[in-house]
Design a protein that fits this description.
Helix content is 37%, strand content 24%. It has 263 residues and is of the alpha/beta class. The chain starts with a helix and ends with a helix. The site of magnesium ion has 3 residues, from helix 2. Keywords: ATP-binding, Nucleotide-binding, Transport.
Length: 263
C-alpha cells in the first residue's frame, strides 16, 4: 500500500459501534494443538484492558493474531469496523494504527534517546521520507512532549545503550507513541523492572488512559491492580476467556483462583 492510500485508510478507521478491536471465535491451531480456542474479546475505544492468565494461556499468541504475525485457523479479527486483520500483512496492520511492544526492548543502543525518538518518527511511513531533513519545531515539540511523558527528559542526549532496563522499556513505549497508534499492545511491560520503575510505568499507563486504546498483558498483579482501576480485566486460560470483570471480581472468582491466582 502506498503512503497516501494508507493515510486515507487510516483516517477511515470506523469505530462508530464503539469498539476498536473485535475478536470473534478465533482459533489458532499449531499442529492440532489449540493455542487459541474460540476466543471472543472486544476492546472499546479509549479502553485500557488488562489481560492476565497462566503461562501458555495464549496471551502472546492473541497479540500475534492481532498484529498479523500469526494467521488464525478460523474466526475473524476486526480493527474498527472496516479493517479485517486476517487479510492484512504485519506492515499494513502497523500502518493502520496498531502498535506493539514486545517483552525485550529493541532500541537503537548506539543512538541517543532523542535520536531514537526521531528515528521512530521518521520511520513512520505515513509521513514523507525525511531522514536527512531538519526537524520542524512542531516535530521537536512532539519529541519533547513524549520525553516528558516517558520520564526521560534530561536524559535525551544519553546513549540508549546506557539506560537501565526500565528506561529502555519506556523509550520503546515512547517510540511507539511517536507513531500515534490508535491501539497499543504491551506484552509484559514491567517484567524485569525494579519496583520503582514498575510504579512509574503504572503512572505512565494511567496518563495514557483514554488517549489511546491499550491492551496490556502482565503477570505482576500489583501492577495490574494499579492500572486496571475500575476497568475490565480479562482472564485467559487454555486459549479462551475464563473470566472478565473488575479486578476485585476476577480475583474473587474461584475458577481464576484455581487456574492462576491461587498457585
Ligand atoms: N509457533 C508455535 N508453535 C507451536 N506451539 C506454539 C507456538 N506459539 C505458541 N505455542 C504454544 O501455544 C501456547 C500459548 O502460548 P503463548 O505464548 O501464547 O502463551 P502466553 O499466555 O503468552 O504465556 P506466557 O504467560 O508464558 O507468556 C503454549 O502452549 C505455547 O507453547
Ligand atoms: Mg506470553
Amino acid at each position: 500500500m502506498n503512503t497516501l492510500a494508507s493515510a486515507v485508510k487510516r483516517e477511515g478507521l470506523d469505530t462508530t459501534h464503539g469498539a476498536i478491536l473485535y475478536l470473534n471465535d478465533i482459533t489458532v491451531s499449531f499442529d492440532g494443538f489449540k493455542a487459541i480456542n474460540k476466543l471472543n474479546l472486544d476492546i472499546s475505544v479509549g479502553e485500557l484492558r488488562c489481560i492476565i492468565g497462566p503461562n501458555g494461556a495464549g496471551k502472546t499468541t492473541m497479540m500475534d493474531v492481532i498484529t498479523g504475525k500469526t494467521r488464525p485457523t478460523s474466526g475473524t479479527a476486526f480493527f474498527g469496523q472496516n479493517y479485517d486483520l486476517a487479510t492484512m500483512t504485519e506492515y499494513e496492520i502497523a500502518h493502520a494504527g496498531i502498535g506493539r511492544k514486545f517483552q525485550r526492548p529493541t532500541v537503537f543502543e548506539q543512538h541517543t534517546v532523542f535520536e531514537n525518538l526521531e528515528l521512530a518518527m521518521k520511520m513512520d511511513k505515513r509521513v514523507r521520507p525525511t531522514l536527512f531533513a531538519r526537524l520542524t519545531s512542531e516535530q521537536e515539540g512532539k519529541i519533547d512532549a513524549i520525553l516528558r511523558q516517558i520520564r526521560l527528559n534530561g536524559s535525551e542526549h544519553r546513549l540508549a545503550g546506557l539506560l537501565s532496563h526500565g528506561q529502555k522499556q519506556w523509550l520503546e513505549i515512547g517510540m511507539l507513541l511517536m507513531q500515534e497508534p490508535q491501539l497499543i499492545l504491551l506484552d509484559e511491560p514491567v517484567a524485569g523492572m525494579s519496583d520503582a520503575e514498575t510504579a512509574r510505568t503504572a503512572e505512565l499507563l494511567n496518563e495514557l488512559r483514554g488517549k489511546h486504546s491499550i491492551m496490556v498483558v502482565e503477570h505482576d498483579m500489583g501492577f495490574v491492580t494499579e492500572i486496571a482501576q475500575q476497568g475490565k480485566v480479562t482472564v485467559l486460560h487454555e486459549g479462551s476467556v475464563l473470566a472478565e470483570g473488575r479486578m476485585d471480581q476476577v480475583q474473587a472468582d474461584e475458577r481464576v483462583i484455581d487456574v492462576y491466582l491461587g498457585r
